[in-house]
Give the backbone structure.
Amino acid sequence: MKLVSFRLDSSEYVGELSVEQDRISFDSRAPGSLIALRDLCGLSDLSCGKLEEVLGKADSKIDVADVSLLAPVFEMEKVICVGTNYADHAKEMGSEVPELPIIFNKFPSAITAPDSKIRLPDISTKVDFEAELVVVIGVGGKHIARENAMDHVLGYCCGNDVSARDWQKGKPGGQWLLGKTFDTFAPLGPMIVTKDEISDPYDLGIRLRLNGELMQDSNTSQLIFKIDYLISHVSQFVMLKPGDLIFTGTPPGVGAGRKPPLFLKPGDQLEVEIDGLGVLGNAVVADS
Ligand code: MG
């Protein structure tokens, strides 16, 4: 399934996208976000099977062009991110390949929709882009064993871990949270592709274009810490909940690693593309 969230006549809905037809099937009697749908339908989790059952009762269809897409999931409890998870990105940033995943977070308020604007804060001059494969948790849990970890995945989508480098690294203590969590700094979408449709999550081309120019071009085969390991590791610390996200890290080519460094400016257009997961496009504007 390809899951989208959208707004229509001031209500939010979850639907199943048919890419061939550019049409969304949805249940007009059940408005709400993916998280709200779970509560509305009394689901204990967001597994593919249960969502198929719910969306199988859809009574309406609409063209994608006639709705505003939202981030495919929002209102989640946690947005977990992994730093330095591509070996060649570690090299460009002058970092060692870590022995353990470097885990940080964004607030869910940073989540922003496909085609919405990334706002450059007045207090940063070094805002950068990071194309990332994002894992959407479908089934929660704590102390998840690595061998069962993939059972907890609903699916995957494109994400952009927008990062203010001058706050992430240039301030006392290294203010990773603040540098990563300005409003609009987590574009997500355009859809969640459920895991049954992705035969190998470690063989997906991942690219980022800035104003049409290819800046990042890699493959998820380069991930240092794999998805099952990340889920198991993080769940030793916190209870994962349905809808939680894991941004799995970015490949080389980010602005800060270039010579000379390159940062975002108003008017820029960003596109994150991952094989099978579509294209996530966002324009950049000044916040003030
Ligand atoms: Mg990142």
Observations:
- The chain has two domains: 2-70, 79-286.
- The CA atoms of residues 4 and 191 lie 5 Å apart.
